[in-house]
Amino acid sequence: MKYSILLLSLLACQLAPSPQAAVANSQAPAAIVSADSIVPPQYDAQKRLVKMTKPASEWKRLLNEQEFYVLREEGTERAFSGDLWKNHAQGTYTCRGCGLPLFSSDTKFESGTGWPSFWKPLKPEYVTENKDNGYGMVRVEVECARCGGHLGHVFDDGPRPTGLRYCMNSVSMDFVAQ
Ligand SMILES: [Zn+2]
Fold it and tell me: Which residues are catalytic?
């Protein structure tokens, strides 16, 4: 009995996250979700993307604190803190809120900003762009066109062929490997 308690406490020590493990986790390769997490768009009779709305209380239940802060309160994750900025695998980036496919790895580029950056969305109608005058800057905010989740901002200093830089938050997206 004594021995099994000792064994359990040893196991518990191994399982308890150490500060070093936490750092290692934050630099781990992107969390890969399965292809079932892609929820394709639906269109109404006028060929408009069908939107999804949920009360804040429901989003709070579905998202963790950081996801809620970025997606629903237009927050920004710290640069270099997310798990997707240095993901170089081939695949599709989807909305963490609703599973809409948003960006292809084919249009991802190394921006050096510490946020995953793309030069165009998969389809223009998958994102909504709004002028944002917050923090004394005029920027263009990018939202998921289906659930309205905040993804990031788009700037006009990107690479060719579009010259655009969609500067996204890792926490707003999932990644489905090809
Ligand atoms: Zn969405």
Answer: 167
Q: How many CA atoms does the CB half-sphere of 75 hold within 13 Å?
A: 15
Model's pTM, two decimal places? 0.81
Backbone φ and ψ of 142, nearest 5°: -115, 125
Note whether 167 and 115 are within 8 A (CB): yes
Ligand 1: distance of its center to the CA of 151 in Å? 9
Going residue by residue through the chain, which has 178 residues, state the pLDDT in tens, using 9 for 90 and above. Answer: 444 444 444 443 344 333 333 333 444 444 668 787 899 999 999 999 999 999 999 999 999 999 999 999 999 999 999 999 999 999 999 999 999 999 999 999 999 999 999 999 999 999 999 998 877 888 899 999 999 999 999 999 999 999 999 999 999 999 999 8
Q: One-letter amino acid identity for 53?
A: T
Q: Cα(146)–Cα(128) distance, rounded to whole angstroms?
A: 9
CA 94 / ligand 1 centre spacing (Å): 8
Residues 6+ apart with CB under 8 A from 110: 117
- Distance (angstroms) between ligand 1 centre and the Cα of 53 equals 10
